[in-house]
Amino acid sequence: MVDDTYYITPHEAALAVVATSMKKSRLKLHLLIINSIMGAFLFSAGGMLDLMCQSQNRGLIDNNMEGIINLLQGAVYSIGLFYVISMGMELFNSNILFFSVGVMRGAVTIMDLFISWFISFWVNLASTIFVVYLFCHVSGVTSTGNYVNGSREIAETKESFTFMQTFLKGVAGNFFVCLAVYLQIMVKPLHVKVCMIFLPIFTFVAMGFTHVVADMFLIPAGLFNNCNFGWGRYFWKLLIPAALGNIVGGSFFGIAIPWYLHLYVIEQDMKELQLPSYDEKDEQPLLNMDSRVIRTPTINTMANYNNVSDSETSSTINKPVRSPKGVFPVYDMGPALKKERTIASSYTQMNNASDIESVMSNAERNKTTTQNSDIPLPSEMMTGNGSLSKKVFRHFSFGGGGSNTDEINRRMNAAKITPKAAGMANDIAGIHTDSIDYNFHDRQSVKRKSISSVNSNISQPALNPKQSPSSMGAGYGSGTKSNGERTRLQNEVIVSGDSSSVSIDSYTEQDGDK
């Protein structure tokens, strides 16, 4: 872990849902199947404990105290979901949340959604039935004693509801499950995640709402003990309406809260109020774990880069590896391409008017048009990523490109690939390390001491002869430590010891986007 905060805001949590959907869409078929198998195995723990509460408390049932049993079942079922989330496995119901938000954000396609939902649903079903039959029924745990009557009671009670009633219970059930998954993303400590998962799961189980994967354990357990209906009735009267209801409830939650209220509405408000923008990056880009998006201040180095010659560029700009294509921008890596940047934040604000004017000079605008369509124009930076309809409907395609102008231009430019551009365009397989880089931290410590020394002693910042005060941001050319001076130091434009040259230790978006 890099960030030491325990909680993230709803906006970052919504972006973490998007980042997780991108991560899950990268799973190869065999990994998706294995994860779905293990997800079913782990989630079955909740079904086992639910059945135990029903079967081993006959005295409460005989004395008409079923409400206490419902509360006990609600209290134990969250254990299975906690296992799944902490291990990063695949569960059909949680995938409904991740991919519905991912599609609305434009991070994944409808085909990604269909593959994930289809595979995880049927593999969860087959794996859960395998656990029920082999480890619970054949082993004798659920096929003897009170478990026989308990499993029959659960299955027959669920079958007594109509198709529409099961559907409506499924809508409410997955609304609460997605709430649990969403809440736990906001927190970092595992013991707090348990609490965030427990509360919504306790609510929906105690109330008797429907969770299709949970029923994959409870109903087959009754079927193997010869309840009063068969497998065909289970599939068409219980499995199908529960799955449809879960899709509606989970998608409604994902679209209404994470996507609309916590992404679109917040970013529109930021645009209208001209609030500061931030780089949102994934602190946990590894597979088989939920993403954790944290914010860092936006570093605008484009203005400085425009005034540095090619020879100076190669010697003064240190370029880390850019964040990979098709991956949510990764913490500790360089800037991402335009599509990944707009997925992470569709609202971007430049520091001031002089930055915008410097970045988009006539010469640079011509260069951008002919060489690099991924660099956003000032209008894109200030107003976000277009209208609501364009942001939503341009992503409803199987190929991921559709008729989007930016995508067409990108493909056209790709037909004129230079060796340098080809090398920069190679997909990077997700370079990241959780180990501590002591050399990096030592360098950062030296930089901080240099900045502190400059901040206390500098009276006039030295400028490159090719740079103008306006292009360096507000505050340059004055004898005080103004906001512009602090911005310069925060962006790690380090003044050398003799105060005669400027060394830029940052990554330029222009090179990163080529």
TrEMBL record:
Biased composition (Low complexity): 493-506
Transmembrane segments: 29-48, 166-185, 197-218, 238-261
Cellular compartments per GO CC: plasma membrane
Main location: membrane
Compositionally biased spans, kind Polar residues: 451-471
Annotated region described as Disordered, given as residue ranges: 449-514
GO biological process, one term: nitrite transport
Keywords: Membrane, Transmembrane, Transmembrane helix
Subcellular location as annotated: Membrane
Entry GO MF terms: high-affinity secondary active nitrite transmembrane transporter activity
Membrane topology: Multi-pass membrane protein
InterPro entries: Aquaporin-like, For/NO2_transpt
Family to which this protein belongs: Belongs to the FNT transporter (TC 1.A.16) family.
Record-linked PANTHER family: FORMATE TRANSPORTER-RELATED (PTHR30520), FORMATE_NITRATE FAMILY TRANSPORTER (EUROFUNG) (PTHR30520:SF6)
Protein name: Formate/nitrite transporter
Organism: [Candida] arabinofermentans NRRL YB-2248
